[in-house]
Specification:
221 residues; homodimer; 7-stranded mixed sheet; Rossmann fold; DNA-binding
DNA sequence: GTGCCTTTGTGAAGGCATGCACAAAGTCGG
DNA sequence: CCGACTTTGTGCATGCCTTCACAAAGGCAC
């Protein structure tokens, strides 16, 4: 039943490379829209905002898909990167917590754009349940486990208040989910084998403030 | 303009460390709320989800604020990290683009919580102008430069559609802003001396999809 | 004051990522 | 068919980050 035998190179893709592949993919899609047939590593790197040697090394982890003297075929590279990232299949995503952020995420076009389909919206507040957002009806958190299993949800976005995040996390893991995108400002503790990615708006601002302060200190006086 | 030369004043705090300081700060605030007077590197590291040696090395970049045999004074360490991050002063933040995401950001409590004050909301759509969000009135994008200067805005959050982001970026930089938090799915090009941090929701999902796919492939069937 | 116990701060080693520089490989005009 | 040119793929050196392991430092009991 194995659809694809994992090659040695599959296991070896560095995290830093994986994190950049979506960037390349976006740049490639821009080129494809303009009808560009091929692109050099130099040009693609510029479009993605990285060093061209880094881009070539990143792509070399996927295979040897370039043509020396010419560059990379845009459509073919889009396909290869999409396949590597798993975007050729359909991913069912559930969003837990439909406050301001959850609603914004549900309406965010970038989610649906490639392979990601929002399969459920949940909230603990009975006032929210039944609301229609982005074409879906908000369901009560009690339905979480049954909906995850019924609709084959494999990725869960947590957009709840901090206090509820760990509990939601535990429940979705118990229901079989192993990929979580966490917007709540807490460190989630999860067992091995579960991937958590965190987006923390206030941390980003604090990092900016540090550099801003340093600029001010260095210039003045 | 040399940004990476360690000096006596600039203690050369590594970027990786800076990125974790807000994490420690959050963990410390949790401890402070529970009245904990001191904490060991072991416990604080566990609360922040990092290795304890890493935490000690991170904190050692700020100075020698621990007491051997005891640990760190929670309140004192909160103060020192806050000061280092520049959170003891008030930062005026403007949000450009009040679509779903911009509105959610404006209402997000985490922004205001520490030193960050939303000083302006902007949109290009005349329909939006005049709306009141989170206690502020949405202003037209034409006012951008004058408001930035008048209210001393030093950090700008870009939450516009992709197509408008670079133009907004250029304008705020021309108005003197050197710190930008970008939510638009584009690579912003900026001159030296300007810091851009990027939050990209769809990229995070794609990274999760990659790992999720690999987990599925790896299972022996 | 003394000795034991805890915990910090850091030297050193190992691993990973980055970017340079170039040989190999392929295209294209004639 | 050939030679000049372009661009990839990668060996290598460098530097940053992480982690281990431990000596030094301080508190505490008596």
């Amino acid at each position: 039943m194995t659809r694809r035998i994992p090659q040695a190179r599959d296991r070896g893709i560095p995290d830093a490379t994986v994190a950049r592949l979506p960037l390349y993919l976006r740049a490639l899609n821009g080129l494809a829209e303009r009808g560009t047939p091929t692109v050099s590593s130099e040009d693609l790197a510029a479009a993605a905002g990285v060093n061209s040697a880094k881009l070539r090394k990143d792509l070399s982890h996927l295979g040897s898909y370039g043509t020396r003297g010419v560059g990379y075929d845009v459509q073919y590279l889009i396909y290869q990167i999409s396949r590597e990232l798993g975007l050729t299949q359909d991913w069912a995503v559930a969003i837990v917590g439909v406050g301001n952020l959850g609603r914004a995420l549900a309406n965010y076009g970038g989610f649906v754009s490639r392979g990601f389909r929002i399969a459920g919206l949940f909230d603990a507040d009975p006032q929210m349940v039944g609301d229609r957002i982005a074409g879906l009806t908000v369901e009560h958190i009690d339905e979480l486990e049954s909906v995850i299993k019924k609709r084959g949800v494999s990725i869960v976005v947590i957009a709840t208040p901090a206090g509820a995040a760990q509990q939601v996390c535990d429940r979705v893991i118990a229901a079989g989910v192993t990929s979580i995108l966490n917007f709540a400002p807490v460190v989630l503790s999860v067992p091995d084998g579960v991937d958590v990615r965190k987006v923390d708006l206030s941390i980003e601002l604090q990092i900016l403030a540090f550099h801003e302060q340093r600029k001010a200190d260095g210039v003045v006086m």
